[in-house]
Specification:
With 79 residues, the chain is an alpha+beta fold. It has three helices and three strands, in the order βαββαα. Residues 1-8 have low confidence and may be disordered.
């Protein structure tokens, strides 16, 4: 029986309608740096990193209602 000491291979899948706030909370709780995003049909639509979300969260146009699908492929906000 193999013993697993560290779970580097964990990739969390979430729906792309999740808010950035919830996604950041999930990442912090799970100790992961990125999430795989899926649409309503559970098809992968992309991925997002904690660093990318932090940039969006820090932008002047950010609200707590911004969804992950809204930041996919969006230009990075400037500060």
């Amino acid at each position: 029986m193999a013993r697993i000491d560290h779970l580097d291979a964990i990739e969390l899948r979430v729906f792309d309608d999740m808010t950035v706030e919830v996604a950041l909370s999930i990442m912090a709780g799970a100790g992961v740096e990125h999430l795989l995003l899926c649409d309503g049909d559970d098809e992968r639509t992309g991925s997002v990193t904690q660093a990318e979300l932090a940039v969006h969260r820090g932008s002047s146009g950010y609200t707590d209602r911004v969804r992950l699908r809204d930041v996919l492929g969006a230009p990075r906000p400037t500060r």
